Amino acid sequence: MTTTQLVQQIKKKKSFLCIGLDVDLNKIPKHLLKEDDPIFAFNKAIIDATNHLCVAYKPNTAFYEAYGIKGWQALEKTINYLNEKHPEIFTIADAKRGDIGNTSTMYAKAFFEDLAFDSVTVAPYMGKDSVEPFLAFENKHTILLALTSNQGAFDFQTKNIEGKEVYKHVLETSKSWKNSENLMYVVGATKAEFLADIRKIIPNSFLLVPGVGAQGGNLQDVCKYGMSDTIGLLINSSRGIIYASNDTDFVEAAAKKSEELQKQMEAILS
Ligand SMILES: O=c1ccn([C@@H]2O[C@H](COP(=O)(O)O)[C@@H](O)[C@H]2O)c(=O)[nH]1
Hints:
Radius of gyration: 18 Å
Strand order of the largest sheet: 1-2-3-4-5-8-9-10
Order of helices and strands: HEHEHHEHEHEHEEHEHEHEHH
Domain Orotidine 5'-phosphate decarboxylase: 16-254
Strand content: 15-25%
Active site: 96
Protein name: Orotidine 5'-phosphate decarboxylase
Oligomer: single chain
Distance between the termini: 25 Å
Bound molecules: ligand LLZGTKA7
Number of helices: 12
Number of domains: 1
Largest sheet: 8 strands, parallel, barrel
Pathway: Pyrimidine metabolism; UMP biosynthesis via de novo pathway; UMP from orotate: step 2/2
Structural class: alpha/beta
CATH superfamily: Aldolase class I
Shape: globular
Catalytic activity: orotidine 5'-phosphate + H(+) = UMP + CO2
Number of strands: 10
């Protein structure tokens, strides 16, 4: 999917909501555990109930890898279901990969070719030659960790090196990489006060913003400082939506939470 198509979807649905599919078998409703594939059954139910309210889904691959081959199969079924039933929806493999060049190429093939995601999250720590292999894929997007939502972001990302914080080095340097138009960035909702500075460096890039809801980030603050001329935001909520109820009404509860966020986004867009 191109960013132009993504912006069209945001305008059409009046939503820039991304729903995180972080499936934990200890948290899903007990009756689903009887299904052949409880993870996919859960995801399918959530997707069927919420797809009209969001523009993106983000399975975090850790929640699938933790269940071995069955987890990976559930991830494959989920992305195939999304691509077949909802090709208009932007898909994010939150895998936080990145390695020496030939290894990064294999990661990129895994997520862009085999699993056919639109995007993958990548750690910038190993630099240009670890990220460019992802950028080489046409109409695929590499979402680089810039300023993350966790407390540990202050350990390295905000440290001043040669007169500039590390996350600013990441933003500025990555702009010079080959096919940098395929870059998006992760900025945590808990770091809204940094967004005005971030927008000075990357005024038009899309930002994936996790951390509203369970982590305490505020949607209005993120939009006030982080919105670009073409919106440029995908606001993620995972636990706040998918575990709104752990009972038989989980689908209705997830749709209700999604609608609450979508309505706030609609108000902001208008
Ligand atoms: O800086 C980051 C980068 C990624 N994440 C991921 O986003 C979701 C957030 O889940 P919630 O339940 O809405 O808190 C999860 O997959 C994280 O691994 C992040 O939170 N912060």
